[in-house]
Amino acid sequence: MTVLLLILSVITGVFLGKHFGKKEKLAKNLLILSAGFLITICLNEVFPQVYTSAESNNLGIFVIIGVLLQMILEALTKGFEHGHFHHHSEHNILPAALMVGLFIHAFIEGIPLANEEHEISPYLLGIVFHNLPISFILGAFLFNRKGESKNTSSYPSLLIVALFALASPMGMLLGNYFHPNLQPYFLAIVGGIFLHISSVIIFESNKNHNIDWTKIGLVVSGVSLALIMHLFHQHPH
């Protein structure tokens, strides 16, 4: 079920991006909604699990490592995770670099899934909710470029989608070979990644620094969804 959800979240997002990718406002709203959801999962689920573990003393440095790692990956993805694909010409983003950046990002997120106690955990749903807007943007970029026919898909584009869809399941597979005591360290790194991505999306300056009530409403909606899920999730004692 976990692997299926991970793959379907990418395929669904890419499909929507291919057919609705020209609606830039929709992509941005999905990102903001997911950012509210993701930062709540990060602060309400991931970090408590990290800092209540037996190895919690020095885990803050691994959160920082996650933040820095995501900053490095964005040099490859050019801010795809933030919806910045429209700020760059096609020549500024190499499919190979994009593929590597997104693959590493998703692969690392998948590692902690190997030791999750519940098959459908808040952490998993955070990744799934996070995958949808990124995949939407990816599908819009890959299949709506100039000269790209709507009825044909280049093999490099399909390869990028396939690798991105399989990255987290592959990370989960590798996670089975790590000792469970390392779980807090991987969660701390992913928590840093989540924190960086969601905070950048949420706190990006609005035009002329005016209050954007739509953005605030979407963030609150994402936070509310995560909190509702938190209420119904059974946490281990």
UniProtKB/TrEMBL annotation:
- Supply the source organism's classification: Bacteria, Pseudomonadati, Bacteroidota, Flavobacteriia, Flavobacteriales
Q: What keywords appear on the UniProt entry? A: Membrane, Transmembrane, Transmembrane helix
Q: Show the coiled coil region(s).
A: none
Which GO molecular function entries does the Swiss-Prot or TrEMBL record give?
zinc ion transmembrane transporter activity
Major localization class: membrane
Q: Name one GO cellular component term.
A: membrane
Tell me one Pfam family matched here: Zip
* Topology relative to the membrane: Multi-pass membrane protein
Annotated protein name in UniProt: Zinc permease
Subcellular localization, as worded in the UniProt entry: Membrane
Q: Where are the transmembrane segments?
A: 26-47, 59-80, 92-111, 123-143, 155-178, 185-203, 215-232
